[in-house]
Amino acid sequence: MSSQTNNFKGKYFILKDTLLIDFPDIEKIIFINNHIDTINEINQEYGEKIKQIHFAGETFDSLKIEKRENQLIKIFPRSKKEIIKFAKPLKEKNFFISPTFPVQILEDISIISSMGLAVDLIHIIDTLDFKLTLNLLDYYLHNASLNVPIEPFHTILVSKLHRSTQTLWNMNLRNPDQFYHCDETGLSESPETLNNAQYQYLIDHQAKTFKRSTQNSPLQSYFNSLPKARPKCMACPHFHICIAWALYNKDSCQKWKKCLTTLQEAFRELKALEKFDQEHTIIKPPSH
Description:
Number of helices: 13
Number of strands: 11
Radius of gyration: 21 Å
Order of helices and strands: EEHEHEHHEHEHEHHEEHEEHHHH
Distance between the termini: 58 Å
Strand content: 5-15%
Strand order of the largest sheet: 7-6-5-4-3-2-1-8-9-10-11
Oligomer: single chain
Helix content: 25-40%
Largest sheet: 11 strands, mixed
């Protein structure tokens, strides 16, 4: 194994404890922890590194998180009652809500967003009912009073508008080129490979650095296999966003294909409206 200390610039390290937090190679952290004192203590000292905090404890306790500027705080409430009860301070803190309770009807989400709370469904969307998923997408696209994002729909649409494609792999924090999932032994490319002790790098705690492992990358092997194993994916118009995520350990991609097609249609409508406004505005804005 050889040291690869130059490979980590700009990468995200997903940490559940503080063991690696002072390593010089670590510049961006997604901190997953349910202990308020630990979160605030680390955030005070290393807050410039911590880009996201994920908290799955009691919703009331999450209000004690001392959020820094430009940090994304994502909480995982276990019931709608918790969210409704603390909606006002959650909105003031600009937290994202990632439900862990069963989402079975549109109102399970619309009641949250109607209170001005951003919602992130990326971790459960693959398990949602097909029709419910499409209803949620329609609600996001066509509810005129909605003024907060519903993810992952919002990120996909905005990335199209800004020509900065965001992949479903990135949104699920599974990309060997962007994210490292960490424990006290090493760095892995996903929670699944981390649980199986399949490390891409092993940790040298004394030197505070990482050494390349000899183990292969299952995700990279999957990507490399796509031209032969999934030629239909390669020809799909949504491949640049999906990259066969929709069929990774799944039987069907129809839900994602329908969602991505609908978002692409919404993008075209927005671009057409933008062009129409530019061409038919009576009073032109002053040129600079």
